Amino acid sequence: MSSRTLSLIGVSLVLGLGAAWMADSWLSKRLNASPDDHLQSVVVATVEIPFGQLVEAQHISTVRMPMDTVPDDAFDSTDKVLGKIATFDILRGDIVRGARVSEHLGGSTLASLIAPDKRAVSVRVDDVVGVGGFLLPGNRVDVLATKNANAGGTTPAKTILENLRVLAVDQTAGTDKTQPVVVRAVTLEMSATEAETLVTAQSGGKLQLALRNPLNLDKKVAATTPPLPAVAQVTPPVAAAPKAVTRRSGPADVTIIRGIESKVVIVR
């Protein structure tokens, strides 16, 4: 065997051992690698959490996500979410955010859904006032009121409150129903001043709820008076000139004028 062949075999062995050592080092680093500093633990929903639902352990879990994709109000531990109330529908796989849950400080679940500066007032309704049973928690409504007149009639309806959130229908705060249901009471969220207005209107007349589209904002359109129809200027016809009659004293002739013609008649 020549020295050239031995040299090639030696170089091949060195390159092979070097490649094996590099592969072993890379694999060892991957297996023993610590968690990436660019990832963060985030609490997500494993099932759909409906509005008003108490968050339990089987509803959530943690996953690791890149830090630049995590919202500021996200939770990094399930212990920080357990026992809270969902104030919005949370879909499966959604990140559980602080803006979509609230603290459950005891009492009823409904009390936890009320904003700190708001109040909850229940309104007695029927199938007409309750918008035919299509009201669900989370909807937005306007309140119209009519006052009982002294003569036994009613005054014209007037909108007294606008854009109120429906907290509960009867004793249900969930939104899993899609079919109309005739209810007896609707609980609305409003400020203290609005609550006084509502109670006063309810005691002095009748109430009606108007369901709003949350995606369509009311736009005030300026009332315009339609232009009056054009009136043709009609020139009245010129009256024909009266017949001119010239009379002379005594027996004399009479000149009769008709239009542009004249005729003399002798009267005896």
- In one word, what is the shape? elongated
Q: What summary fits the major beta sheet?
A: 5 strands, antiparallel
End-to-end separation in angstroms reads 176 Å
Low-confidence stretches: 219-234, 244-249
**What count of domains describes the coordinates?**
3
Q: How much strand?
A: 25-35%
Evaluate the radius of gyration: 45 Å
SSE sequence, one letter per element: HEEEEHEEEEHEEEE
Count the beta strands.
12
Mean pLDDT: 76
Widest sheet: strand order? 5-8-7-6-9
| Secondary-structure-derived class | alpha+beta
Share of helical residues: 10-25%
Distinct helical segment count = 3
Question: Could you give a short description of this structure?
Answer:
With 268 residues, this protein is α+β, with helices and mostly antiparallel strands. It has helices at residues 3-31, 109-113, 192-204, and strands at 39-45, 60-66, 85-86, 101-102, 119-124, 140-147, 158-169, 185-190, 205-211, 244-246, 253-258, 261-266.
Commentary on this structure:
The protein has helices spanning 3-31, 109-113, 192-204; strands spanning 39-45, 60-66, 85-86, 101-102, 119-124, 140-147, 158-169, 185-190, 205-211, 244-246, 253-258, 261-266. It has 268 residues and is α+β, with helices and mostly antiparallel strands. A hairpin with a 2-residue loop joins strand 11 (253-258) and strand 12 (261-266). The longest helix has 29 residues, at 3-31. The protein is elongated, with a radius of gyration of 45 Å.
